[in-house]
Amino acid sequence: MIVTSPDWKLKVGFYGDDYVLWKIAAYDHDPFYPPRWIITANQNTPAEIVAGLTTVLARDHVEGEQRYLSGPPYYWADGTEPLVDSGWTPAPLDRPTVEFSSPDKQAGLVIARAVDDPHAASRLLWAGPGGWGTHVEITFTPYTPTHLIAATAAAMVDPTPVTRALRQIPRQLRGLLHLTPVAEAQAPPPRAAAATARTTAPGSSTAATTPPPATVPPTPQTRPAHRR
After folding, report:
1. Is 68 helix (H, G, I), strand (E, B) or coil?
2. Could you tell me which residue ranges the DUF317 domain spans (predicted)?
3. Is residue 225 one of the residues assigned to a domain?
4. For the whole prediction, is pTM greater than 0.85?
5. What is the pLDDT along the chain (228 residues), one digit of tens a residue?
6. Strands of the 2-4 sheet, one edge to the other
7. Are 106 and 172 in contact (CB under 8 A)?
């Protein structure tokens, strides 16, 4: 499935059962030209991280200033501020490459400081141990705007809890996470339900069990819980 902006300058592709599940691209001209930049995310990438990126991208488009086509990082560390603020530290892997590592060493950002191919990945944001079902990979090509890299990094380190069914969490990851059971809603005791039925006026059962929308307090939207 591919979703495009009205002017075809942005494309978001969802590839169903591929390893590279998401491809997001921006175009200087029209979609028949090569994209200016591409971001990919594999099938293990939490939806909250993709949403953190696409929310900023959509806002850029609505504001109409084409910020999503702004310049790439000027300095190799640009866009890493959310990681540094969360305690990630840089270390040189070899002369042209630097990696930022999370405090628990379970996530990192690899930056290639010199990439000649504009369509090759120059940054790799990863998390989790290696493996088909456990390793998160997000790549950025060299001309990806700095603020989009930062938005993705901020979503990666966001400590807000996320909700997952236990079966969605691979066993080898459970020891790395803070898991808190969510209590199920309790049905009213049978005697209380019978009392309610006796005191409900005939013909008003729908109103009693389904209050008008105006009387229902809004439910706050919370991001589900999963430590990244």
Report:
1. helix
2. 4-60, 102-162
3. no
4. no
5. 999 899 899 999 999 878 899 999 999 877 788 999 999 999 999 999 999 999 999 999 999 888 999 888 888 889 999 999 999 999 877 778 999 999 999 999 999 988 889 889 999 999 999 888 899 999 999 999 999 999 999 999 999 999 999 898 888 888 888 889 887 655 556 654 444 444 444 444 333 333 444 433 343 343 344 444
6. 2-4, 10-14, 20-26, 37-42, 136-140, 123-127, 107-112, 97-101, 89-94
7. no
List the domain range (segments joined by +) for residue 8: 2-161
- Spatial distance between the Cα atoms of 190 and 173, rounded to a whole number of angstroms: 41
Residues in the chain: 228
**Per the domain annotation, does 151 fall within a domain?**
yes
Number of domains forming the structure of the chain? 1
SS3 string, 171-225, reads HHHHCCCCCCCCCCCCCCCHHHHHHHHHHCCCCCHHHHHCCCHHHCCCCCCCCCC
DSSP line for 108-177: EEEEES----TTS--EEEEESSSSTTT-EEEEE-TT--HHHHHHHHHHHH--------GGGS-HHHHTTS
- 187 in a domain, yes or no? no
**Helix (H), strand (E) at residue 41:** strand 37-42
217 within some domain: no
